[in-house]
From TrEMBL:
Protein name per its UniProtKB record: Type I transmembrane sorting receptor
Originating species: Pseudogymnoascus verrucosus
PANTHER family documented for this protein: ASPERGILLOPEPSIN-1-RELATED, BETA-SITE APP-CLEAVING ENZYME, ISOFORM A-RELATED
Pfam family membership, one: Asp
Peptidase A1 domain: residues covered: 1-258
InterPro entries, alphabetized: Aspartic_peptidase_A1, Aspartic_peptidase_AS, Aspergillopepsin-like_cat_dom, PEPTIDASE_A1, Peptidase_aspartic_dom_sf
Keywords, alphabetical: Aspartyl protease, Hydrolase, Membrane, Protease, Receptor, Transmembrane
Length: 261
């Protein structure tokens, strides 16, 4: 695309920029011809050293950074060819995951899918999230929203919310060297419950909230819940999707969730 360029910066400080081309892109059985593809001329070390070839953005096209003419995402371009204008994320804990385009797969979840309306005015799959629980202890968080984002690894919440969680974790501390909250690996963690708009509560079991060992001894562990630094905007990343099958439905739009099978 002659004269087209792009640049993006992420919350963790990583970023990349470059030029734009077009190609036929196929993901599973879904194909888009003439899809704009951002070609990186500059990239942070995180991208250069990683095993992945790139990223597929699945937020709304309104936050695409291509200039001078904004381009549509793969999902937006694919919608006309799908049975339903949706995709779903199946990211089970320590197992092979999948994305479904155009339909949900009932073998990937249990129970019924609960839905909430989405505010896409900022380009994200965003909804109110105004209460939470640490174990059985309930808290309110008026004015808070959350973004469902499979491009984020952890669950990121407000400083006070995260501090309230770790008050219930014996031996936990905010370790600036590690970049977040750590705790003794032998500690029993409480569950975390978050409100998903008007779709009800999502209970994240404790087993998903221990992300990984924080040191070589295996005695200190890094939490899957960490501060977002985004004020009243939480991010429910892959840790959330370890526990829940997530449905991103462009009709509405809406976000749905059901316990992972």
């Amino acid at each position: 695309m002659s004269g087209a360029s792009w640049s993006i910066q992420y919350a963790d400080g990583s970023g990349s920029s470059g030029t734009v081309g077009t190609d036929t892109v196929t993901i599973g059985g879904t194909t888009v011809k003439g899809q704009a593809v951002e070609i990186a001329n500059k990239a942070s070390s995180q991208f250069v050293s990683g095993a992945n070839d790139g990223l597929v953005g699945l937020s709304f096209s309104s936050i695409n950074t291509v200039q001078p003419t904004q381009q549509k995402t793969f999902f937006d371009n694919a919608q006309a060819s799908l049975d339903q204008p949706l995709f779903a994320a199946y990211l089970p804990f320590q197992a092979t995951g999948a994305y479904d385009f155009g339909a949900t797969d009932s073998s990937r979840y249990t129970g019924e899918i609960s839905y909430t309306s989405v505010d896409n005015s900022n380009g994200w799959w965003e909804f109110p999230s105004t209460s939470y629980k640490v174990g059985s202890k309930a808290f309110t968080s008026p004015g808070y929203t959350a973004i469902a984002d499979t491009g984020t690894t952890l669950i990121l919440m407000g400083d006070e919310q995260v501090a309230n969680y770790y008050k219930s974790v014996p031996g936990s501390k905010l370790d600036n060297t590690q970049g977040g909250y750590v705790f003794p690996c032998s500690t029993t963690l409480p569950s975390l419950t978050v409100a998903i708009g008007d779709g009800g509560d999502a209970v994240i079991p404790a087993k998903y909230l221990n992300f990984a060992p924080a040191d070589n001894t295996g005695t200190s562990c890094f939490g899957s819940l960490q501060p977002s630094g985004n004020g009243q905007q939480n991010i429910y990343g892959d840790t959330f999707f370890n526990a829940f099958y997530g449905v991103f439905d462009a009709s509405g739009p809406s976000f749905g969730f059901a316990a992972t099978a």
